[in-house]
Amino acid sequence: MKTLKFKNGDHMDAIGLGTWKSEKGEVANAVKIALSNGYRHIDCAATYGNEAEVGEAFAEVFGKGDIKREDVWVTSKLWNNAHKKEDVIPALKQTLKDLQLEYLDLYLIHWPVAFKPDVSFPEKAEDFLSLEEVPLIETWKEMIKAKEQGLVKHIGVSNFSIEKLEELMNDTDHLPEMNQVELHPYLQQNKLLEFCSRNGINVTGYSPLGSGDRSDEMKADDEPSLLENPVINKIAKKHGASAGQILIKWSEQRGTAVIPKSTNEGRIKENLQSAGFQLDEDDLKQIADLDDHFRYVTGKFFEMEGNSYENIYND
User: CA angle 167-172-176, nearest 5°?
Assistant: First the structure.
């Protein structure tokens, strides 16, 4: 499997297990299955609401001693209600407590969006804080402190456009080491990938299979299916693979990390096996032609009349 290299020489496996939407009562088992079958990269976040259960799995697996903590890359993310400077490190420490870990390998600012500290998810414009009230650089400086304190090894961002990255980079010499964004053949984000590559920022893609299991409120009425796409399925048949494996391999082969979520044992194993074949030039050309800039996770849920978060992706 490919790995992504960081400036200090650390490596992160390109294929990881995502935990967004993994239900309580299922996610711990999914993590244990993944680790016992060769995964060494687990992606978490405070807002997923399941970090305590993931932590139980870590405690059990690492406690047995066959798999060491230092051999597993663990990512988590700062939620939007902890952007104020006094809230960043306490939020991180809560994540570490929940995950039963002493440090994270990677900690990300989940969105370039800020809520008031007592708001889990906003219902009205007044629940937000503007980026004038809580500038991204204020939050970022605390992320840097967390790294200096040894609580995290690497820091980065998620859902940042080129414009948001530039805004942050203009204010700091400590550049983000990762940008985690939605990536798949319908949203290939070539300009963003080129920008990140030029600036030494690694990229992880989420929703690589189209995130068909997210809530109905988050779905468009007529959104296209990646797993049912005829081009993807034709390529899958050619390689004796599943459509999901083609989508995962495409992400890994273009140099990004990818974090498909599953709680199904067979699917968890199958997803990791995507590393075992190569897409050829013709496959890649056909997939390149599928790009139509379609987002499954639009960010529209942050747009409310009276707040300042219209078009956060600058599309």
Answer: 75
Q: Is 11 helix (H, G, I), strand (E, B) or coil?
A: strand
Query: pLDDT per residue over 183-221, tens digit each?
Result: 999 999 999 999 999 999 999 999 999 976 645 666 577
Whole-number Å distance between alpha carbons of 63 and 57: 10
Q: How many residues does the chain have?
A: 315
Question: Per DSSP, what are the bridge partners of residue 107?
Answer: 76, 155
Catalytic residue among 48, 107, 186, 309: 48
Closest C-alpha among 131, 197, 134 to residue 164: 131
Active site residue 107: no
Beta strands in 147-256 (DSSP E): 152-158, 178-182, 202-206
Over the Cα atoms of the chain, what is R_g? 19
> What is the residue-wise DSSP string for 39-96?
--EEE--GGGS-HHHHHHHHHHHHHHSSS-GGGSEEEEEE-GGG-SHHHHHHHHHHHH
DSSP 223: P
Which residues of the chain are under the pLDDT cut of 50?
214
Domains and CATH numbers, the chain: 3-302 (3.20.20.100)
Taking the C-alpha atoms of residue 64 and residue 119, their distance in angstroms, rounded to an integer, is 38
Rounded Cα–Cα distance for residues 287 and 187 (Å): 11
How far, rounded to the nearest angstrom, does the alpha carbon of residue 305 sit from its chain's CA centroid? Answer: 28
